[in-house]
Amino acid sequence: HIIITGPDKQAGNRAVEELEKIHGSERASFVCGDVNDDKHFRDVFEMACERFGGVDILFNNAGMLNDKEWELTLDTNIKGVVRGTLLAFHYMGKDNCGKGGIVMQNASIVGLQPLCGAPVYSTTKHALIGTVVNFGSPFHFNRTGIRVVAVCPGVTVTELITGAGGKQYNDEWSEEAERELASLPSQECDALGKGVVYIAKYAPSGTVWIVEDYKLLYVEIPNRHSISKVVKDLKDG
Questions:
Q1: Residues 8-46: pLDDT tens digits?
Q2: On the chain, which terminus has fewer CB atoms closer than 10 Å, C or N?
Q3: DSSP letters of 76-125?
Q4: What is the pTM of this model?
């Protein structure tokens, strides 16, 4: 069973209808709310535990590509994801009588490269890579049994991308964001879905994956010592 949550009731109910046409009745449900509301997010976990015996997968998907509302973007894209991760640890962690599972952070390729026309959005996606490197570490996995991984979609045909042009800090930045996104290969949502299924099955905790141009790629996060060199020994004055 999949539980979808978000602020758009009409879109959420439509998604449930589409899923149940494919997978049968009583396979999906929608709860209207906002990931910035701690009580709402906690209540969704409580409902899942009461009705279905727990949560196996949290797909941390909340995100805004709207630098005009940069403070709300930071709250939603970073704090909302951290909130979801902490709630997952509480309700899913083996150290809290849970079964373990997986938390998938929906980052972006612009969490691994710039999107100069939407710098706040890109910054938030870089932050999500940081949540995976930290929350996905053996220290947390060994305690909770929860794998924390990142999915970094390339340009995927969704309303987030098609509606991004007029939502950046000013018109010049919006034009640059549109130009940058248009320069990258695009894909339909089914490619991302197939990638997510593979990642959910096989990805070790703390790993980062790209789904771009209908390809699944593994990202090797380098050790900082392997990519740095001494310029000057400051003890020499």
A1: 999 999 999 999 999 999 999 999 999 999 999 999 999
A2: C
A3: IIIIHHHHHHHHHHHHH-GGGT---EEEEEE--GGGSS--TTSHHHHHHH
A4: 0.95
